[in-house]
Write a structure and sequence with these properties.
The chain is α/β, with parallel strands linked by helices. Helix content is about 25%, strand content about 15%. The protein contains four helices and seven strands. The strands form two sheets. The chain has a five-stranded parallel β-sheet. Strands 2-3 form a two-stranded antiparallel ribbon. Strand 4, helix 2 and strand 5 form a beta-alpha-beta unit. The mean pLDDT is about 90.
Length: about 180
């Protein structure tokens, strides 16, 4: 497992952000989380060792932007390059979670179509209102591998109808 933070910083978006771990950790360090910046590790996906092997080893899961949101607005100018590096590294699996799934198509690569086998995209929901908004948006997005994360769970949430819609594939019966 590796973590890749091509940028850091985030803005609180909804009720689930009230006690966000990023904001808490940064506050302890005196860091302004609302400041979004490109990190020194931006290009680390492509860095190789002296033998010509990638430093981030093949076969790993790479968690993307776990100190930000991959779809935060201020990163729009950097996202195209980030996508290119992720697409190039088909030897690892990328996973990112977002509270901004409605922005998924902003800066999406032209060759994306319905996504790539090695890129997993998820949205987080914290209450029924956000589940209804974000899971409706997630359903419409051209993503091969979708994840739903309930965190933090602020109230009882019913996502059964979204699971049915997301899991319906012609000729395949799913049980959950």
């Amino acid at each position: 497992m590796s973590i890749w933070n091509p940028w850091k910083g985030c803005h609180k978006k909804s009720e689930g952000c009230k006690n966000c771990y990023i904001h808490r950790a940064n506050a302890r360090k005196g860091i302004d989380t609302d400041y979004i910046y490109k990190t020194d590790e931006f290009e680390c996906l492509l860095v190789k060792d002296a033998k010509g092997n990638y430093k981030i080893k093949s076969g790993q899961i790479v968690y993307v932007c776990f100190n930000s949101d991959f779809l935060v607005e201020e990163a729009d100018e950097w996202r195209e390059e980030a996508w290119k590096m992720m697409i190039e590294r088909k030897d690892v699996t990328f996973l990112f979670l977002t509270k901004r799934i409605e922005r998924f198509k902003v800066g999406l690569p032209k060759e994306w179509e319905d996504g790539y086998d090695h890129i997993v995209v998820g949205t987080t929901v914290e209450n029924q209102q956000r589940a209804d908004e974000r899971l409706t948006a997630l359903k419409e997005m051209p993503i091969k591998h979708k994840v739903i994360t309930i965190q933090p769970m602020l109230e009882q949430i019913n996502i059964e109808e979204y699971l049915k819609n997301l899991l319906e594939v012609e000729g395949v019966e799913y049980k959950y």
